[in-house]
Amino acid sequence: MKNISEHILDIVQNSIRAKADNIEILISETNQEINIHITDNGMGMDKTILQKVNDPFFTTRTTRKVGLGIPLLNQHAEQSGGWLKIISEKGEGTKLTAKFLKNNIDCLPMGDIYTSIALLISGNPEQNIIFRYKKNDKQYSISSMEIKEILEDIPLNNPKVANFLKEMIKENLENIKVSFN
Fold first, then answer.
1. Of the candidates 99, 82, 159, 157, which has an alpha carbon nearest to the alpha carbon of residue 126?
2. What is the per-residue pLDDT across 8-60, written as a single tens digit (0 to 9) for each?
3. DSSP letters along 22-63, please?
4. Quick one: pLDDT at residue 134?
């Protein structure tokens, strides 16, 4: 994974596989750091799985023998001078927090967060995906539930919805002066 946006996609897909129907993505940015918080109400993990989650040769998936998503996210956060923390309880869901130090040469770029969030919302109409972005004292948020109310009878997985969402997210983040260069 080459950017933070791709890591967010991967982690949210884990939440969906864990049968979460409510997933919150919070990105908080200051001049020094980017913090990623992803919280879900999925199946959660017991202590044994939680201890193994950073091992790239461990996965709960049956389609492959390695699970690189969380180990790579951990590596990328640590390379920037940050860290990764996961709190999970079986039957209660999972909370993942990652910190990236922006001034570190090894800090990943954000990537195309506009498209990533738009695709997560439009591609997963059964989940309520809540996206919040905080930069210093400004904030933007959007959720699947809000979008469903706005669109009324148009389904989230309508092909035109993803592009509409991408442009709306981009415009709102630009209004709070978020720059992903």
1. 157
2. 999 999 999 999 999 999 999 999 999 999 999 999 988 887 787 776 565 65
3. EEEEEEEE-SSEEEEEEEE-S----HHHHHHTT-TT--S-SS
4. 96
DSSP string, the chain: --SHHHHHHHHHHHHHHTT-SEEEEEEEE-SSEEEEEEEE-S----HHHHHHTT-TT--S-SS-S---HHHHHHHHHHHTT-EEEEEEETTTEEEEEEEEETTSTTPPP---HHHHHHHHHHH-TTSEEEEEEEETTEEEEEEHHHHHHHHTTS-TTSHHHHHHHHHHHHHHHHHTT----
- CB count within 10 Å of CB 36 equals 23
Q: Which amino acid is at 178?
A: V
**Residue 63 pLDDT > 60:** no
What pTM was estimated for this model as a whole? 0.90
Pick the CATH number of 4-175 from 3.30.565.10, 3.40.30.10, 3.40.50.720, 3.40.50.2000: 3.30.565.10
